[in-house]
Structures are given as C-alpha cells and as structure tokens.
Design goal:
The chain is 25% helix and 24% strand. The chain has 361 residues and is α/β, with parallel strands linked by helices. The strands form four sheets. A six-stranded antiparallel β-sheet has the order 10-11-12-15-13-14. A four-stranded parallel β-sheet has the order 1-2-5-6.
Length: 361
C-alpha cells in the first residue's frame, strides 16, 4: 500500500516503482490511475472506502461508502448514544459513526461503491473501519451505543455487513480487502474475523507485527498475529500485511522483522503482499532485504526462534524474549552487508533475510 493521500501522490512512481502488488488510493485520486498503471503494470489498484463511518465531503468521489448528506433522512443509518444523539468519531472530526448492521445502509454502501469502482477503473476496494469493536471512543472504549449493547454485538453486525456486501462485489470481479480492526489474541474477535473470510478476497491487516510506533511484537502477540495470515491462506484468501514505522527498533530493523514474519508464514501460492509505511517517506527501500524466491520447506523452530529456507536464501527471526539467539545455517549465506556467514546471532525482536551464495549474482 503506497499512496493514501494527495500528499503522497509521488510514491507510486518513486524508488519502489514496479515493485508493488497492491496500491491503495483515495477514491478522488482516480485521475492518476493511467500514470500509475503505466509505471506499475503488475499492481492492482484499490479505492479507499470507509465502512464504519460517514463523512460529508468528497463530492462525486468520496472516500466513504455513504456520505452523511444522503443519510440525513435515514436516522437508523447513524449510531446514537442513550439520549438519541448521533455519535461522532473522537479522533477524526466530521466522521459520523454508521450503523453497519442496518440493511438499508448496507444496500446503499454497496450500490455507491460498486458504481464508483466500475466508473473510475479501480480493481477493487480497501474497506476501512471494518472493526470487530466500535473503537473511536465508542462502545466499551467510550460512549455506549444505543444500538449495540456490547462490542461483541457490534462485531457480529460487522460480520453481517461483510456477508451482505462482500460476495456481491466479488461477483462483479472486484478485489474485496477489508481492513479488519481486531486483536488476534482475543478469541471472539478472531472468530468474527474468520467468519468474514468467505465474503472477502483479501484480509488487510494494519499493525502487522507492531502498533504505530511500538516495539516489535514478540511471544504470544507475535504468534497470534502470524496465525491470522495462516488462517486467511488456509481459507484460500490473500493477506495484505502493513507494518508501520519507524518503531522502537528503528525503520530498518522494523522492516526486516515485518517482512521476515510475513515470509515465515507465506504459503508461496496465495495472492498476498507485505508493505511498510512511515509518514510521507518512500515506503520502499533496501532495508527490506533481498529477494529470496519461494518457500523451500516449512518453518523450523530454533530455540525460541524460527528459520525457514527459501529457494534463494533463508529467513531467521527471534520473536521470543531470549537475547542472543544463535542460528547455525546448513549452508553459508550472504548477510545484509554482503559478507559470507554460516552463523547469525539475533537479539529478541530481531530478524534477518539472507541470500544464498548461488543467488548472489
């Protein structure tokens, strides 16, 4: 995922040009599609469309599936507090919380987005705020919802939304990639997310292996996050993991850790991708590590870490709390500096992607 605002319009044609599999754009950026497609002929382009909230702006090319103006006469399309007041996101001014469980809202969202995708030439949609909990200072995290007594009830309504909307978009040939907000270590949220899989083509996962600027996930949080990718692939769905930065360990270390985690779980077949985002900076860079081909066997446990062979190299990761975990390679490889090595030591929360010697040329 590359350019999600007009301020980032140059990113799809910067140093990562030709490397991207999926590029997410605001719907209003449709006029740039010919330029972007010429520069990235193998990429698919997804329009950003909000699900759980409604905005007033955007004219004929909004980035929200339903605008507040068309919902004003449909009070049931809004979420309310106990006194009947419409609720607004606390963290995004002007975004009104939508009742995603309302059938008429679902139908309008579907009609609007289907028309926009076809009209403007997008390959599909990245659906934001497909949340298994209300968030945005609502529900258990703030103001209770009159329509949904619990976060779990709201999550069930989100599943109903995707069940109603996703297959219809898929039947039209569009990529359906909801950005599902959930905590993988929460059994209810995980079950609700899995329930959406038949209604989508790709699971979009923000915060792949860390929060906005946290330490890299380790231990149970790392394992639970990795499992979401495995579940999506087992269901025949693609997986789009997005790591934010720069993070506690720094941009380069975070990029390697996020990509190595993705490589550890990738089945080699699914239409999946990993990406990195840090403000307006170019998301592509050499710190990602080299291209090492396709998986060449399953992941193998090494103490509290993991190793996986690829056709052109090897992936190493220490997601444990163990400092200085030593990996002994079956064959010597080239490290990030191009030096030959057959032994790598990784601190906790660190990873490495190494090239095999016969792929170095």
């Amino acid at each position: 995922m590359v350019a999600q605002s007009w301020d980032e319009r140059s990113l799809p044609t910067d140093s990562g040009v030709g490397q991207y599999r999926f590029i997410v754009l605001q719907e209003s950026m449709y006029s740039l599609l010919p330029e972007y497609r010429a520069a990235n002929p193998d990429a698919r382009f997804l329009a950003y469309q909000k699900v759980g909230g409604m905005r007033a702006d955007g004219d004929d090319h909004p980035s929200t599936g339903v605008q507040t103006g068309e919902a004003d006469s449909e009070e049931s399309w809004f979420l309310h507090d106990a006194e009947g007041n419409r609720l607004e996101y606390c963290d995004y001014a002007g975004v009104m919380a939508a009742n995603i469980g309302e059938a008429a809202y679902q139908a309008r969202w579907l009609a609007n987005v289907t028309e926009r995708l076809a009209r403007d030439g997008f390959d599909g949609v990245m659906m934001d705020d497909v949340n298994t909990f209300p968030g945005h200072c609502l529900g258990s995290r703030g103001t209770p919802l009159a329509e949904y007594a619990t976060d779990e009830a709201y999550g069930d309504a989100v599943v109903a939304f995707m069940t109603a909307v996703g297959p219809e978009l898929m039947d039209e040939g569009f990529i359906v990639a909801p950005n599902i907000a959930m905590n993988p270590w929460n059994d209810t949220m995980l079950a609700q997310s899995v329930a959406m899989l038949p209604s989508i083509t790709h699971w979009n996962r923000e915060y792949w292996m860390r929060w906005d600027d946290s330490e890299n996930f380790r231990g149970a949080n790392w394992q639970a996050t990795l499992q979401t990718m495995i579940l999506a692939q087992d269901a025949g769905r693609g997986y789009l993991g997005l790591t934010y930065g720069p993070g506690v360990e720094g941009a380069g270390a975070g990029q390697v850790y996020g990509r190595a985690s993705w490589l550890l779980a990738w089945d080699g077949l699914s239409d999946s991708a990993w990406g990195y985002k840090a403000g307006l900076d170019d998301p592509f860079g050499p710190d990602w590590g080299p291209d090492i081909g396709l998986p060449d066997g399953p992941a193998v446990a090494v103490g509290g870490g993991w190793m996986r062979a690829y056709t052109g190299g090897v992936v190493l990761i220490n997601p444990s709390e163990t400092d200085d975990l030593v990996f002994v390679l079956d064959e010597a490889c080239l490290d990030a500096e191009g030096a030959e090595t057959d032994r790598v030591t990784l601190d906790r929360g660190q990873a490495a992607v190494l090239r095999s010697l016969d792929s170095s040329g």
